[in-house]
Design a protein that fits this description.
Layout (H helix, E strand, L loop, with lengths): L1 E3 L5 E6 L5 E2 L14 E9 L7 E6 L7 E7 L9 E6 L4 E5 L10 E7 L3 E6 L2 E7 L12 E4 L1 E3 L5 E3 L1 E10 L5 H8 L19
Length: 202
């Protein structure tokens, strides 16, 4: 259901039981081809959301089938700590933060994989950066793409309870400055790393 979002515009409400958005098998969302991604969203849960997904991409069938995801307690399925993660074909790679969301309060979460580090941001601030050398996202085809749901290794589905707004998926790794601009709703401002010598903006 559509409801009032963080900035007063529309957001989506999920009941935590069976609500989710299915973007199906869109090949443009197979970010293994770039081995870079940025995932972000504003989140306001009804209650603690252990093991639930904000953004989940399933690249194959069976267990350990998730290519990448942003959510809460993704590894354990029993906690509500925010986590950005991907599966490299043999093992999970993740970055977490020890404090979960507050029920009834909007919080902005962003996860970035830049090819060497998984960075997790909360309300525009970097809260964890985990290094992973010589690893990459699997390049299998997209099977399903979900907002508000995840598929865990036990084969069960976990649904997010609450509101999601401004869901963002990019096939490139944003910098900390760019994440802060998104959090501050200042996407009208260009950052220095987005410019090159000799460019003319008029």
């Amino acid at each position: 259901r559509e409801r009032q979002g963080y900035r007063g515009s529309g957001a989506y409400e999920f009941d935590g039981s069976n609500d989710f958005i299915n973007l199906t098998n869109r090949t443009t969302l197979n970010l293994g081809t770039t081995n870079r991604f940025t995932l972000a969203a504003w989140v306001k849960p009804y209650t603690s959301p252990p093991g639930t997904g904000i953004i989940t991409e399933q690249y194959t069938t069976g267990t350990d089938s998730i290519q990448y995801e942003l959510g809460f307690g993704l590894t354990s399925g029993t906690t509500a700590i925010p986590q950005i993660a991907f599966y490299n074909g043999t093992a999970w790679k993740s970055s977490t933060y020890g404090t979960g969301p507050t029920s009834g309060v909007w919080t902005h979460y962003a996860g970035v994989w830049n090819g060497t580090h998984l960075n997790l941001y909360v309300n525009g601030a970097l809260v964890n950066s985990t290094a992973y050398a010589s690893t990459s996202i699997p390049t299998g085809g997209v099977q399903q793409y979900w907002v508000g749901r995840r598929h865990d290794t036990a084969g069960t589905y976990d649904f997010f309870p609450g509101f999601l707004d401004d869901v963002l998926v990019m096939n490139r790794s944003l910098t900390g400055e760019q994440i802060l601009s998104i959090y501050q709703n200042r996407t009208d401002v260009l950052k220095g790393m987005e410019l090159a010598v000799g460019q003319s903006w008029s």
